[in-house]
Amino acid sequence: MCEKTGLDNKMTNITPETRIMMMRSADSKDGYRRQILAALAVSLGPFAAGLSKGYMSPAIASMQELEHTNSSFTVSDQQASWIASLSLLGALIGGILGGITMRLGRRSVLLAAALPYTVAWLATALSTSVDMISVTSFCGGMLVCCITMITQVYITEIAVPEIRGCLSSVSKILSQIGILISYSLGAYLNWQQLALVVAAAPVLLFLALLFIPETPSSLFLRGKEEDAADSLQWLRGPDTDIRQELATIRTNILASKQFNNGRAGKLKVLLSKRLTRPVLITCGLMFFQRFTGAHVFSFYAVPMFKKTFRMMNPHGGAIATSAVQLLASCLSGMLIDNVGRLPLLMISGVMMSIALAGYGSYAYYMAIFMNSTDLTQTEPAAYDWIPLICVLTFTIAFSLGISPISSLLIGELFPLEYRSTGSALATSFSHLCGFVNVKTAADIQDHIGLYGLFWLYAGISVLCLLFVVLFVPETKGREIDEMDPKYVESLCINR
Length: 495
Fold this sequence. Notes:
Elements: H1 2-12, H2 16-24, H3 28-42, H4 44-63, H5 77-101, H6 106-125, H7 130-158, H8 161-186, H9 191-209, H10 216-221, H11 225-236, H12 243-261, H13 266-270, H14 273-290, H15 294-308, H16 314-335, H17 341-371, H18 385-400, H19 402-413, H20 416-471, H21 487-494
Helix pairs in contact: 3-7, 3-8, 4-7, 4-8, 4-9, 4-15, 5-7, 5-20, 6-7, 6-9, 7-8, 7-19, 7-20, 8-16, 8-19, 14-19, 14-20, 15-16, 16-18, 17-18, 17-20
């Protein structure tokens, strides 16, 4: 009897955080397996996005070479910039649309967007004019933004902290696989045939979504407590005791609703530190992610390599870049939950700065050589490996740090009640920056040269490093708010 009393006293002294961890570990392997399967299912959305992202570079090259296409039209450089950038402008609208519709359920919106995304790519394959391609590019960008944004939120809400960063990287890895497939097939298929390949991926997403549940947080937020309990039980495993975690989520969501209902006026809620601080951090990271040249490499890889390679195959360079990006994304997935977010972001900033400065310097050397009449200078064909190494280094740095982590932080930093609004703001701002960057890259290059463009990107990467050091918090191992036993206490402090 005394032993039992002593054991009860010990259990009483256990903190709620430890109790949740003990309950999760009862059958953690089965729970992890189900979370991984759910993450893989929704990550077919980023896979489709990767196919569409990788499509642009070989497709634009194909459109600009009449002999490689069955169509009766070709595409100028300005038209190509509009086709590429309109997908990002559509994504700007898609971010807002996704934030509004996310309240209807994460899985529900993914299901609703999947098949229309296939239709958009079928329309691209059947396009008979530049205007029609531009329209389908805009619509496709709008739908794919909804899919990728909600995928990240879904993974954040279903995963336990121990594997959240790794599962978030799964979506990035599948996105990189999609890019690699598009680059590889783009060397052999014309733009219409490649569009048909992209159109098949959203169908796979739709079928996979039929076998996974809605997120518990989303169901609780809409008052469906029984469905939320069933969802959490499925995700954690049939033998896992979910009572403590379920009670924590319920208490925190109810407290959050009560807290927000007690605030005077919507403007005060929107100006709350609980919303503005995550918005500023995530939008800052999105700005640096877009203006460090990543989209320029993605959309214009083949045309850009044609300008700096003398002997190497530009398509081969694009494929090598995508393969390295895939490997770096896999490495990031292994490190992100062990090393932490901040160290990877800082390493990423340093490496990107060096790589972009090196690429700009080589482009400057090429410009001097092409304008020189000195026949004693060494032919630069022997130095094709220099720009390739710079691009590969940049790709590794980008995929290791800022690319996966900036998306992960959208789900981790925003409280549940602001997650749809905050995700929409950060994602829309990200694609606005992407649109401006892709559309103006050619114009900036005309004014300051290719070398000036990449020196500018190198300077922005240095500023990114400073921003990370000064403002970005470490979220490694931290519960998202509605699953955190200390969440109610934090609301009281903020009040």
